[in-house]
């Protein structure tokens, strides 16, 4: 291609587009630092806007480094800046920004993915080999902080909605749990949902299953901290699901698409459920085709990229892995796979969530 073939305006715009992606990646690193260093927390807790010197003092950090970080965040429109006539700069968070960046108790809190950003990006060193061999890496390849990041991603929403919204949407689930039910949480991670159910329904017995040793360590610690006797956490490779139709309720939150053999897991779930049991399947909201996802999901590029670095990588971490990926389980596929596993009833629950879809699946 010669220089004469180039549309220089199109070239300029395309270059701009490419570097906006780099800006996003670099600013994501700054968000990670803001969370890790307590900068957002300090801004959120202040009743008035802070100067750079005040923020550095409040966080015991070096002022020059804080200043450059503030300039990135203000230029990215993530924090508010007021520049006085004297040139003094004052920084603050809007109420909405404070919720997303600093309030771990709010369901909109968004720092979990940024917490594990260094581990996620580190996977780029190993991924070229995955492209050559087809084999990915499981979640423990991201180390202990990867497990913490996933926990921080899901706990705020689970804390606010699991008990008051999600479980009551399942026909008869709450009544069964109150009376005493046998419950399994598949892909339990750090155990937040399992501990929450066990605490709320002391007559029920809950078992959390996960293959991540880092997540299981956190779950066991959480159980000990809460002093619970009706919850336990196991690795399904050594302690598999029962096959005697003894379970009343099984939950699976955002994990089926990550699994190497999800169809086998669905069949195991079916074998473990009582004839009147319930499987609560929660997974990423996706559409049937790439064209639909690209057109209707403004976060599609993010999700496909995270899939390469995390979800699909996990789902292809053994030979013959299914490789569903982040957007690989739309309702139609989930329904078909559940039917193939022996389930006869599949109902999408009327629960609004920006990321997930919720299904009640029964034998």
Secondary-structure map:
Elements: H1 8-36, H2 39-45, H3 52-59, H4 63-75, E1 80-83, E2 89-92, H5 95-102, H6 112-115, H7 117-122, H8 127-133, H9 143-166, H10 173-179, E3 182-186, H11 192-200, E4 205-209, H12 213-226, E5 231-234, E6 247-253, H13 262-272, E7 273-284, H14 290-296, H15 300-315, H16 331-340, E8 345-348, E9 356-362
Parallel strand pairs: 3-4, 3-6, 4-5, 6-7
Antiparallel strand pairs: 1-2, 7-9, 8-9
Helix pairs in contact: 2-5, 3-4, 9-11
Q: Any idea of the CATH topology of the largest domain? A: Rossmann fold
Secondary-structure element series:
HHHHEEHHHHHHEHEHEEHEHHHEE
Q: Looking across the biggest beta sheet, what order are the strands in? A: 5-4-3-6-7-9-8
Quick one: overall form?
Answer: globular
CATH superfamily of the largest domain: Vaccinia Virus protein VP39
Number of domains: 2
Give a verbal description of the structure.
The chain has 363 residues and is of the alpha/beta class. Helices cover 50% and strands 14% of the residues. The chain has 16 helices and nine strands. Strands 5-4-3-6-7-9-8 form a seven-stranded mixed beta sheet, with helices on both faces. Strands 1-2 form a two-stranded antiparallel sheet. A hairpin with a 7-residue loop joins strand 8 (345-348) and strand 9 (356-362). Helix 2 (39-45) packs antiparallel against helix 5 and helix 3 (52-59) packs across helix 4 (63-75). It is globular, with a radius of gyration of 23 Å.
